[in-house]
Specification:
The complex is a heterodimer of chains A (about 190) and B (about 100). With about 190 residues, chain A is mainly α. Chain A has 8 helices and no strands. Among the domains of chain A are: about 80 residues, Four Helix Bundle (Hemerythrin (Met), subunit A) (Up-down Bundle), CATH 1.20.120; about 35 residues.
Chain lengths: ~190, ~100
Amino acid sequence: MESVLFVVAAALSLVGGVGVVTARAPVHSALSLLVVLVSLAVLYLTLLAEFVAVLQVIVYAGAILVLFLFVIMLLHAHNPELRPSSGPGRIHRAVAGVCGGALVALVAFAVLRELRGAAEAPVAAGFGTPQSVGRELFTTFVLPFELAGVLLLVGIVAGIVLGKAPERRAPERTEGRPEEVRLSRSGR
Amino acid sequence: MTVPLSAYVLVSLLLFVLGGLGVLVRRTALIVFMSIELMLNSVNLAFLTFARMHGDLSGQLVAFFVLVVAAVEVVVGLAMLVSLFRAHRTVDVDEMDLLRG
């Protein structure tokens, strides 16, 4: 049962990942990202990380993805990928692909050999529930937790400042002296 | 039959590679951001796998903080993207080359 769940969720997440990278339209990428995020939440559940799985759905699928969709609609993108790339030629791409693939295979081989026979450690009841994670958060990790709060505040302020529409200067200047403006305009 | 934990690490590795590929290959800034999210998520999966492997809750706490940082990163990044788009009318990362010599 658990292995079936793992295979389905892992396959869905990988298919979604390919979708994010290969989709032409940003909206399709965002929806593929949603598939990845939800199937990863299922994987988190099989790893006994209930709290993080719930956060994954609420924060990522609920907030971050909606933000992505908002910005996609806002910029309603003319797609730059439709223009031919000014990038490197076919030989460069082939060499880069072979080198990258070899590197990935090497890392995968090393890591998986190291992890062969790694098993789940026995855990106490309530491992990964909101209670146990919360207790840890307010005892051992209380300083990073507070810093995360400050970071979120900085993020809010930065988002507002950067996202604000640029102020228009013209109406302010003409406010006090309407005649002059009219004169200069008729003089033109 | 239980799933070996190395399978989780393999999924994490493949997702990370996909995300890195997206960052390097795609030219739409939004999709580059989404690829970064993919990489952050794969790292989270690895952290949770190792937490399970050692029976230690610290890995889950780190995943929580990664989630917080990812949220802030998306907010600031998308805001920068919107103001860049206002100034230059493009979301192509190849055309954002103001510092080019």
